[in-house]
Amino acid sequence: MEGKTVIVTGSNSGIGKETVRDLAKRGCRIIMACRNLLSANQYRDEIANQTGNQNIVVMKLDLSSLQSVREFSRSFLEKESRLDVLIHNAGYANTFTKTVSVDGIELTMATNHYGPFLLTHLLIDILKKSAPSRIIVVASSWYRVWSPDIENLNPIDNNPWLLYYASKGCNIMFTMELAKRLQGTNVTANCLHPGVIDTGIWRNTHTLLKPGLFIWSKLMKNPVIGAQTTIYLATSEEVKDVSGKYFKDCKEDEPRPYITNPEKCLTLWEESIKIVKLQPTDPKI
User: What Gene3D superfamilies would the database entry show (predicted)?
Assistant: First the structure.
């Protein structure tokens, strides 16, 4: 990975942190795109000292804010000359409180789908310029719990605890349509299920559920194991020409047909363009 540049969103903890640690050992330049700069800088120094790779940069990114996504992209493009791998790792789960982003978008959907959707558009030209390059989306098999409502893609009145699962479905649908549109560009797009991991994604669990969650956590994978499929998709020559696939445990897996339905994937894409307010001057995919 020497000479390559990688963005990892949400890389100040959990799977993202372990992804950065592994990639740093491989010698690439890493952009840690994080909302919490204090912890991100702490982990940046920790990983740099452990691996000897000082070519790790922390940049501010709040995926729930469309303005923050645009500011991050603008800053990145001003400073960087290439992008070989874009890893959409950041995730948010809201359990009981109905919350909207600064843009009036339901917060879980804003963070897990709409922010990454806009970020991909704004960085697509540099990915094409740097090709062969890769886009990796950390989804989840939890999409089976609750499907995205194609008729209501900004579900601010829905039960918040269901929307994490819907957002993971959106991750898969987004990847499938993205891969289709990137055919012939030498930019690949794949998504993955990391497993059930003991990470900060569970921090917003209701207090009454935390005793049970504590017991369940003993059965979860740790973040190092959870990061392996992401790392595989970012580095392996075996998948350099593979695109539009869903992976689990470093192998291709078959998602349910309803979540890869081409018409629904296209509808999600077209409605997402409207919700993120993509501008005529923005790059097109």
Answer: NAD(P)-binding Rossmann-like Domain
**Quick check: is 165 catalytic?**
no
Please name the residue ranges forming H helices in the chain: 14-25, 37-51, 66-79, 107-109, 115-129, 160-181, 210-217, 223-226, 228-235, 262-275
CA separation for the pair 50, 29 (Å, rounded): 15
How high is the pLDDT of residue 213? Answer: 45
Q: What is the pTM of this model?
A: 0.92
C-alpha–C-alpha distance, residues 188 and 245, integer Å: 10
User: Residue 129: left if φ>0, alpha if ψ -120 to 50, beta else—which one?
Assistant: alpha
Tokens of 47: 């990983």
pLDDT, block means (10 residues), the chain with 285 residues:
97 95 98 97 97 98 98 98 98 87 97 98 98 98 91 91 94 98 98 75 48 48 92 98 98 96 98 97 96
Q: Is 48 among the domain residues?
A: yes
Q: What CATH number has the domain bearing residue 31?
A: 3.40.50.720
Residue 161 falls within a domain, yes or no? yes
Catalytic option among 92, 143, 164, 246:
164
CA distance 143 to 257: 12
User: DSSP characters for 69-90?
Assistant: HHHHHHHHHHH-S--SEEEE--
pLDDT tens for each residue of 53-97 = 999 999 999 999 999 999 999 999 999 999 999 999 999 988 778
